[in-house]
Amino acid sequence: IIASDPLEARRELFSERFNITVTADNRRVVENSYIVVLAVKPQQFNEVVAGFADLIRETHLVVSIMAGVSTASIEAKFPDIPARVVRAMPNLPVHIGAGMAGVCKGMHAQEVDLLRAQRIFDTG
């Protein structure tokens, strides 16, 4: 697992608490991942995705937890490929291992993509 955050304090927290690789570079995350989770505020979506959209390939699964941003809006950011997008809406108890997430697939996502996204939020 590799995660990015612009704030050094948050990167240190993620690294120490979850023992994962961290970076401030979203492009590095995409280059080293096959599942990319978009966990940004909706108003940051355009700017953040513009920084790495050219790196997304058909082999990537893009999972979004952004409220109010449709799978079609996300797919539109990757016009040259049939982007595999899944939208997830985890509820608050998922943070303590007692929640659940509703998921839906975009136009090009497959059932296996939906299952992979569900496993990310599985608290069982």
TrEMBL record:
Matches recorded under InterPro entries: NAD(P)-bd_dom_sf, P5C_Rdtase_cat_N
Keyword Oxidoreductase in record: yes
Residues in Pyrroline-5-carboxylate reductase catalytic N-terminal domain copies: 2-68
Stored Gene3D superfamilies: NAD(P)-binding Rossmann-like Domain
GO biological process: L-proline biosynthetic process
GO terms for MF: pyrroline-5-carboxylate reductase activity
UniProt entry keywords in alphabetical sequence: Oxidoreductase
Family: Belongs to the pyrroline-5-carboxylate reductase family.
Protein name: Pyrroline-5-carboxylate reductase catalytic N-terminal domain-containing protein
